Amino acid sequence: MSGSGAGTPPGRRSGETAAWVSAVTAVVGLLLAVLGIPLVGGSSVNRTIADNAGAPAAPASSTPDRPGSPDATDGPGATHPRASRPAPPPVPGGWRRVEEPGLTVVFAVPDGWTRKERNAIQSTWTSPDGAHDMSVKRDTSYGATAQDASAGQLAWYRDTARSSMAALKASTHTTRQNGRSALWLEIDYHWAGQSEPRKRVEVFVPGEAGRVYQLLLDTAATPGGLATQRRLFATARAQLLVDRPARS
């Protein structure tokens, strides 16, 4: 044969063929990896053969509920683990903050109000003219939920021999208090042996260790008294902080 390129030496052809096969194999392997198709004896990208076998993988962005998040622990019989607690809101003008370490509660009362009673389960305050009474109570007597506690308390109120309350008309409303599911109780009544109508508003909020906190405001049901009661109760609710351990 004549000409300079009569053929390629066998050894060179073998080397070129091997290089070509290697290049094709590398390209195929890259395509399979990009498509997520496992090679024999290997795995798809970012997974091992043992990863959650038979179970769906959890989303990478999922995070557990943070301990102490009030809404994450709401529900019947729920507990509310201690965590970093919010600072008390600023006390409005004409009010002052009250701490009751024995009841693990912080609240506020208007200036000039005096403590009428304090015992193992409640702290009661009265206005200078005696027209309004406010109590903060922490109890386990009737159950660990707002619903159970309100039902038990209302049954006690209806026992006139013990409560001295007569002609009760009650209504309840679901609400939120301290970031938790709570219950709002309204009672129209009069004291036994008297005819002056009265109004009691009360909120029940579940706390730690099966305790339920109650904030109530009781007043004579006059137009002026009821308007004042609404304002006082709204401010008192905003200032209520439950499950507050004594500061060391």
Structure description:
The longest helix has 26 residues. A hairpin with a 5-residue loop joins strand 8 and strand 9. This protein has 4 helices and 10 strands; from the N terminus they run H-E-E-E-E-E-H-H-E-E-E-E-H-E. With 248 residues, it is an alpha+beta fold. Strands 3-4-5-9-8-7-6 form a 7-stranded antiparallel beta sheet, sandwiched between helices. Strands 1-2-10 form a 3-stranded antiparallel beta sheet. It has 2 domains: 37 residues; 156 residues, 3-Layer(aba) Sandwich (Protein Transport Mog1p, Chain A), CATH 3.40.1000.10. The N terminus is likely disordered. The protein is globular.
Tell me briefly what this model is:
The protein is 24% helix and 30% strand.
As for the CATH topology of the largest domain, it is Protein Transport Mog1p, Chain A
Tell me, what's the shape?
globular
Say how many strands there are.
10
Q: Report the biggest beta sheet as strand number plus sense, adding barrel if it closes.
A: 7 strands, antiparallel
How does the helix and strand content classify structurally? alpha+beta
Report Rg. 36 Å
Overall number of domains: 2
| Average pLDDT figure | 75
Percent of residues in beta strands? 25-35%
CATH architecture of the largest domain: 3-Layer(aba) Sandwich
CATH homology group of the largest domain: Mog1/PsbP, alpha/beta/alpha sandwich
Number of helices: 4
Secondary-structure element order, N to C: HEEEEEHHEEEEHE
The percent range for helix content is 10-25%
In the sheet with the most strands, the strands line up as: 3-4-5-9-8-7-6
CATH class of the largest domain: Alpha Beta
Spatial gap, N to C terminus: 105 Å
- Poorly predicted regions are 1-15, 17-21, 23-83
